[in-house]
């Protein structure tokens, strides 16, 4: 237990929980991290697709970013309303289930679960991408670095996130501060130089164009860029955590986060075009992230460069933490509706839903290993889940306003309707554009997950029906069971087992299996002197002794057959099979004893039925 | 079961065993295989060490072979006497234990066990070596081929060797026949050409000498060549299998085997010198075995070459089979003296001591993998075990004659005494010469094995003492146990468990663990209506209900603490803990239910003691 305490902290009693009460200043790092950090990989993902376009890509980045920002503003107004309507937290799963029913709720649930796993995987891999840009020598260790960060996040999260407020605050503001500084300084230089600034560290030259611009490519670039929006839902999910006036604080936080995100995305797009910065091949040896190029071009590779890169790495790793905070809550909510195993509702030693964390870590680790820890390969799977969840959430809100018809319901319906329409279209665009690149994985996983969840619920319901007992205890026919004891030879274990049997019931059958290979005295030889005589002397009933011949030298099969045969002939009678077992002091001593007791217990459990119980009589070997 | 029947044959009843009764014609293949086949790797092992000597090595092979043959003849006379003295089978373990005591017996046992494992490994690897000489393309697959042959041998042996007589007969006589033909034809050609025959297929030229001849090297070559003697003991081991007159038949068989072996070894040595054939580097790409070169030189690479090579491969693989036949008998004999786990005394479905086969296969496989399936690397470990066993066996015979003092006892003592002296000296020579090359592994394993065997016997003796029960059944104080049932909520499982408890005893304590995270009704809420009221109505004692608070949300630890506490306060009282358990229909359904019942059973077994029994109440979920 001491090692556990050291690693994960001492157990927390249920009463030690404290409600967090935060304002916008603390809310921005906690709920905005996921959204803001996506500025570090969204533009990168879009520009990577434009590598084949060469210089022409640079002209495209600004209009595509503009389209993304418009979508972001629509989402902003939509989610403002969700916050108002669900002051206790309006995640997509809740909103969709409550307003649209179980089916859409499950769709949103599956989409969100996949989305959270991808948030963790993409956050970690993008963080490592930033690190590699600053220290290219580390590139061969990409996957190992990813898994190391995953391990650190796991340990931190299994201790609990109660005191991580400060850990979030500093890197988030450092990230926003340094990146905004780069953007402002850069824009001033662009303006001063008449649109043609001179980079301090020259970015790698853009490769010659090898493809021509098509609508298809524009759609793909747009889809990749949309990954910059995936964290927007977080605030509406956690409204409850804000202090009074809850709704107002939450809305203000959302406003600031979206405004910052718009500034970052717009600034990056403008500077990329002005400085002629494109993406580099993430699998190539000269890989350098877009932000790394940008910061170096504007500020040079001095201390400021390294501070900014460090804050990006930190913020991306911490953004993976959003998944650690939200995924277990989501699985718990789904599990409470019987759609996931009930373990997800159990709180571990540190008051966390630990099994949700285990599941997240397992899935994220698998994803990182499968895709080698390269962000660019993960991106196509991403976004779909998020946009699907957005769409169902907004659709749910439309129904919500329609049902409620409070003041201004038409206006609100229209706002959420536009949101639903825009995100719905985007979902389709992302799915189509990215299908072959990897979105098919997500498209396949969602129905599989839903099937699994439905099967889980069906199982739980069936078990609950079968176990439900409307009647009080039935006290009829409480006859002691028939006790069957397999015996080998007379020993202390035999005596202990027989004594226990005699204390339970007067109906006892001792079973001895006789094989041709036996040597030495068996219990049959001593039956009269050791067992029958003393019982008769005490006026007690002598157990029946049955000898089973085993020509094939099997020992357990004849016992099993005998028990099942008895069970068939004696209707309504309970049968207790006594299994004497030697318990050794050291594990290796098990090698010296056959494991018949364990095998018999397992056989009885697998082949047995409602009327067969197993009674384990342990004999503990003394020390020394 | 059907797959098992197909792979291993249907189970055999104990009565189906039939005693084999063989004469010399069948005895030579069965008991001589190991000895005769060593002609295929013994000279090879000696010549390999002489590679650095170049041409000079060739002159050395004849005198060294002569020394080996003298030793062989000494052994022959020694073992003739063992056969006479032990008509029921005189293996080294038996002879050493009976005449010298347990200590030397264990030394012989350990040496023999290691020797058998090496017989299997060397036989297989040498067979594959012969195959590779004929088809050099297979060299990269050496290890895979070795393991494949091991697998085939395992399957054949697990079916039993009852009808393998013919399988042994043909390849053995083919091997002896073809090889003797090669030797006779070769010697005639040597004689006809005046000592300088012209090879039909020229063997690879001998490399230039890179080392000079030292006594040390001679000792090493002699030690390696001694591996050709390892199979000599087999006949004396299996005297019982011969038909009347048993001793005479066995001795005649031994005579023929030794005579053949002498002819083969002497012939090979003479021809190698005459044709200028040396060993080639077994790790190099141009590897060709000595016998392959020899056959090709004398007979050319026609059909005769391939028939001979095939018979060598077969005989070597079958010689590994000697280990499969003898190792399980040896482990059984040791296990009957409590020095090895008792499973080695159990006969499996095909009347074999299957666990001995499993152990042999496991160890041989490990050895082959460790040494990459190369015979040359295994040889240094070999021979020591065999010669150690020889020495103890002969020493035992010396004591045997001394004790008996029958007619001619002095002469017999001298013969076995010379045998013991010669093999003892050889053991020391082999150990010294091969120590750094790998003999240290054997030298280390033998004491470790002995330590293990002694510890095993000590354990068995201790357990037997502890379990021995001289008194008849004690019928005092047969009070029903105190029954403790952990309960969660009212359900059919709860009802079943309670009913079983009521049928066993009137002293029942129901335990409910309450954590802060519980939701819904617990068994406490329904205690009065569902349980207490009907029992009171029936005039029965109502169980005690104990609620355990669990602030840290642990469920099983409080139950364990309660049980142990009760056990401590109630002296001499038996305690039965009822563990209700849900048994699902499909394994994957286990994921949906917590495994608390299994964990509790395990905790009770590990932390419990003599007075705590576990009663498992299974509830089988219905289908559909």
Describe the structure.
Two copies of one chain form a homodimer. Chain A is mainly alpha-helical. The first copy, chain A, has two domains: 2-14 and 21-365 and 447-458, Amino acid/polyamine transporter I (Up-down Bundle), CATH 1.20.1740.10; 482-620, HUPs (Rossmann fold). Chain A is built from 21 helices and five strands. Chain A has helices at 2-8, 24-37, 42-49, 56-85, 92-100, 102-134, 142-159, 165-192, 215-225, 234-237, 246-275, 290-299, 303-336, 354-370, 375-378, 384-404, 409-467, 492-504, 523-537, 556-569, 596-607; strands spanning 482-486, 508-514, 544-549, 575-583, 612-620. Chain A has a five-stranded parallel sheet with strand order 3-2-1-4-5, with helices on both faces. In chain A, helix 5 (92-100) packs antiparallel against helix 6 (102-134). The longest helix of chain A is centred in the C-terminal third of the chain and has 59 residues, at 409-467. The first copy, chain A, is elongated and about 115 Å long. Chains A and B meet through helix 17, helix 18, helix 19, strand 4 and strand 5 of A and helix 17, helix 18, helix 19, strand 4 and strand 5 of B. Strand 5 (612-620) of chain A pairs antiparallel with strand 5 of chain B.
